[in-house]
Structures are given as structure tokens and as C-alpha cells.
Design a protein that fits this description.
Largest sheet: 7 strands, mixed
CATH topology of the largest domain: Metallo-beta-lactamase, Chain A
Order of helices and strands: EEEEHEHHEHEEEEEHHEEHHEEH
Shape: globular
Helix content: 25-40%
Number of strands: 15
Length: 332
């Protein structure tokens, strides 16, 4: 195996290679993955992105698999809005089953909303705007199936799943033992998910689960511990670029060892008390102390600063381009 992951984006679809037989694609700020079954030539889709992701996913599938442009199944790491946006349309169009952990079923069958996102956790615009993110359930009852209890992944005999709750009750991660490839979902991520800049620019930093949706920090820490014990060599997550090698291992160990300092927000709705869930959905959420007026002021302030930063960056790039054009003219 080479020392560096091939992260060259394909011009047509924007997908990237993670490991042999594993590809990913970023749509705005979230990743989806496609995994080949080398024994029968079929493939599996992991997560389904945003509501408008379906055409991109189909183009990627066609380019990778040609006539086998539909998967044998769709596996969901969890059911948050940015991971299931296109799952219903894709499952119906392809006529394929969808699989999720049994503790995630209430949020996929219109039985329960998730614990509300927490915009007070800090970290950037993605957190501040999280009060707008839908936590209501979807209903794919006609397509959804429960993953087998033995940890096997339907359609992927080389892979197993690990229950990694904390970010969501039925969150799972996928692991291929032969070359120690881990698709972690949002159990941890490889960018600062709370920051719009980091997320959009894919700044590479191994971090805890997105703070604004994580409802139980003790469970989240146990999940990171479970994944660390697998000793992964390559990790691909729901947000951010793939990481591998010593840099990744040291970062994951550091996150585990200093989880409550690095991952857990200093304040927030679920910091001192988690939401409580069971197989039927959410049964208790801590009281929210959100000051909506202060929140609106903070959002406005950060939006103005972000716009100013983008304008400054664009101006610098324009000047740099003009300088390079002038320089090339002089050389000519």
C-alpha cells in the first residue's frame, strides 16, 4: 500500500479514492462513500448526502461501475439530515434495500425526532446555524431494514460494523480488517465540523463528533475508544478528508486521551446531562437555555466577518492573478 492516499479529484464528478475498492465524494460539507464487493462485482452506497445529492451520486456511480450503476444496498451510518437527504429517492429509483442499526430506526420511520441540535456549543457558523438543521424524522419504512446483530454488513463480506453511539443513538462505523480501513461516519471527523471555513475548505484536523448534534458525550468518548482499539491504518469520515499513517494514529490517540478537553464543548445543552433514548426514540432532553436574541446577534456578526474574509481572500487572489499575468508578459 502506498504511503499517501490518492486524493486527486475526478474532474467530472469530484470523487476521490480512499483505499482499494473504496471511493468517496464531498457534497458541500458532507461525504458519501461507495464500496466495491470484489467477490461479485456489486457495490454498496454508504450514506446519501443532502437532498440535492442524488444526481451527483448517480453520476459517480455510473462512472465507477458503468452498467452496475445501482448498488446492492444502501448502508446508513446514521440518520441525520446531511446523511440521508437523498436516501428515499435513491432507494426508490434503484429499488434497493436500506440498512441501519435498530436504534436508528425510529428516526427513519417517522416515529421520533432526534435530540434538538445545540447552537450554543461554539466553534463557528455551522454550530450557530444548527438551530435551523432539521432534526425531524424521515419515513423510509418501505425500504429500511435492520442490520444483523452479528456485525456483518450486507453485501460486503470483508467488512463489519461497530455500534458507535453518542453522536446519534444508532450510529455505526464500518471496518475492513484486511487492510484496516475505517469509515467512521461522524463518530469522529477529520475537520472542524463546527466551522464553516474548515468544513468547506476541508482543513485537515482530526476532531471529535460534530458538537451541535452530539447528545451524549460519555457515549461519544466510548465510541472513539472502540475505534481506536481497531488500530485503523486509513480513516474516512462524514466530514473532512481521509487520513492515514502516523499522523492519523497520533491524532486519534490524542483525541482519545484528551477527549473531554478537545472534543467536548465548554458549554452546551448536553454537556452536563445527556439526552436519553431507547429503541422507540427520544424519551428525555435537557432543558435549553438558548438566548435567541443573542444567538441572532452572534450569527449576524459571524456572517458579516465571514463575508468580509471571503471578499478579502477573493481580492488577494485577483491581485495575485494579475501579478502573475503581468510577470508572464514580461518574461515573454
Amino acid at each position: 500500500m502506498t504511503n499517501e492516499i490518492n486524493y486527486q479529484k475526478n474532474v467530472y464528478t469530484g470523487f476521490f479514492s480512499v483505499a482499494p475498492g473504496v471511493w468517496g465524494m464531498k457534497d458541500v460539507f458532507v461525504n458519501i462513500y461507495m464500496i466495491l464487493n470484489p467477490f461479485d462485482g456489486n457495490w454498496v452506497l454508504v450514506d446519501a448526502g443532502l437532498k440535492w445529492s442524488a444526481p451527483k451520486i448517480k453520476r459517480m456511480a455510473k462512472q465507477l461501475f458503468g452498467e452496475k450503476g445501482s448498488p446492492s444496498s444502501i448502508i446508513l451510518t446514521h440518520g441525520h439530515f446531511d446523511h440521508v437527504g437523498s436516501v428515499q429517492s435513491l432507494a426508490e429509483n434503484w429499488n434497493v434495500p436500506v440498512f441501519a442499526h435498530y436504534l436508528e430506526i425510529p428516526y427513519l420511520t417517522d416515529k421520533s425526532s432526534y435530540p434538538p441540535p445545540d447552537p450554543t456549543v461554539g466553534g463557528g457558523l455551522m454550530s450557530l446555524m444548527s438551530w435551523l438543521y432539521p432534526a425531524t424524522p424521515i419515513n423510509i419504512g418501505n425500504q429500511i431494514n435492520v442490520l444483523p446483530e452479528n456485525g456483518r454488513v450486507p453485501g460486503l463480506p470483508e467488512w463489519k460494523y461497530i455500534h458507535t453511539p453518542g453522536h446519534s443513538p444508532g450510529h455505526i462505523s464500518l471496518f475492513r480488517e484486511t487492510d484496516q480501513v475505517l469509515i467512521a461516519g461522524d463518530a469522529f471527523v477529520t475537520t472542524k465540523a463546527e466551522s464553516a471555513f474548515s468544513t468547506m475548505l476541508q482543513s485537515k484536523v482530526l476532531s471529535g463528533p460534530p458538537k451541535y448534534f452530539t447528545y451524549d458525550w460519555n457515549l461519544a468518548r466510548e465510541s472513539v475508544s472502540s475505534l481506536l482499539k481497531l488500530e485503523p491504518e486509513i480513516v474516512a469520515t462524514g466530514h473532512g478528508r481521509p487520513m492515514q499513517g502516523s499522523e492519523m494514529r497520533e491524532s486519534l490517540e490524542n483525541l482519545h486521551d484528551h477527549f473531554y478537553h478537545l472534543a467536548v464543548p465548554t458549554k452546551g445543552r448536553y454537556v452536563d446531562e445527556p439526552a436519553i433514548t431507547n429503541a422507540y426514540g427520544v424519551i428525555y432532553t435537557p432543558h435549553s437555555n438558548v438566548n435567541k436574541r443573542l444567538l441572532a446577534i452572534n450569527i449576524l456578526s459571524i456572517t458579516v466577518l465571514a463575508a468580509a474574509a471571503i471578499f478579502t481572500l477573493a481580492t488577494k487572489r485577483k491581485k495575485s492573478k494579475k501579478y502573475k499575468e503581468a510577470l508572464s508578459y514580461e518574461v515573454w
